[in-house]
Amino acid sequence: MGSVSMLAALFLIGAVGGGLSGLLGLGGAIVLVPMLLYIPPLIGVGALDMKAVSGITIIVVFASSLAGLSVQNKNNLVLKNMVVIMGVTAVVAAFFGAIYSNSSSSKTLLLIFAIMSAFAAFVMLLPNKESDEEIVLENIKFSKPKAALISSTLGFIGGMVGAPGAYIFTPMMIYILKIPTKVAIGSTLGIAFVASISGAIGKLITGQVPYIMTVAVVVSAIPAARFCAGFTKRIPAPILRKALAVVITVATVRMWMDVLNF
């Protein structure tokens, strides 16, 4: 069930994870997993195993991405046809990736994901000439075949390693599909929401979700995601890209530490 101090820690973790999810379109797992694993034992309130962490995380990603998505949609920062194309292809590809992963070593899978994460961090640091003028969604054009190829590739590898990697979608949208930063962030939340549906259902029906602790995270993550999502439209695009670069770089370093057994 969890002590009061553990639930309080989870509440604060949910607020941070949900806030970053809404603001930067991260989905949330990239922030929540390390925080849930390392912060409770660090502050002496107990520890969660990876099974509990994964159960909590998928529900929080589902809830916070939906909360942030609703705000980004009101702000006209969600390209719906791109979300449908990339969300559906990512989910289907993830299914086949999960099946294929049975024939690959966990070390190989982690290495693949770490390389992808490093690439995402690199491209976020590339210069990008983008104005902060009013965005008109109807004027945004993108290659549907490219979008499907990107999402199927990321989905397949994400399915192999058991992590959706929503944070990698945003750099790919910005630098390959040429989508404005703020729209890429808003649309990534849509993809994260679509991608989390099947995982959330699976975890719930198989009893892998610790309900009390999950509620402690979700009740702070949802309002934090909605609140911070409102700032995406106001913050200059270059600052958002730099913030994303920092978060992705931190995640990349952590993954490479796992790969190299540090």
Tell me the helix content: over 70%
Q: How does the major sheet shape up?
A: none
What order do the SSEs take from the amino end to the carboxyl end, as H and E?
HHHHHHHHHH
Shape: globular
Strand segment tally: 0
Return residue spans where pLDDT drops below 50 for at least 5 consecutive residues: none
Rg to the nearest angstrom? Answer: 17 Å
Overall average residue pLDDT: 84
Fraction in beta strands: under 5%
Summing up helix and strand content along with how strands pair, one would put the structural category as mainly alpha
Overall structural domain count: 1
N→C terminal distance: 33 Å
Q: Count of helices?
A: 10
What do you see in this structure?
With 262 residues, the chain is mostly helical. It has one domain (4-259). Helix content is 76%, strand content 0%. The chain is built from ten helices and no strands. The protein has helices spanning 4-24, 29-42, 50-74, 80-100, 106-124, 144-161, 166-175, 181-205, 211-232, 237-259. The protein starts with a helix and ends with a helix. The relative contact order is 0.22.
Compact overview of the structure:
With 262 residues, this protein is mainly alpha-helical.
Task: Describe the SSE topology.
Blueprint: H1 4-24, H2 29-42, H3 50-74, H4 80-100, H5 106-124, H6 144-161, H7 166-175, H8 181-205, H9 211-232, H10 237-259
List its salient traits.
262 residues; mainly alpha; 10 helices; 76% helix; 0% strand; globular
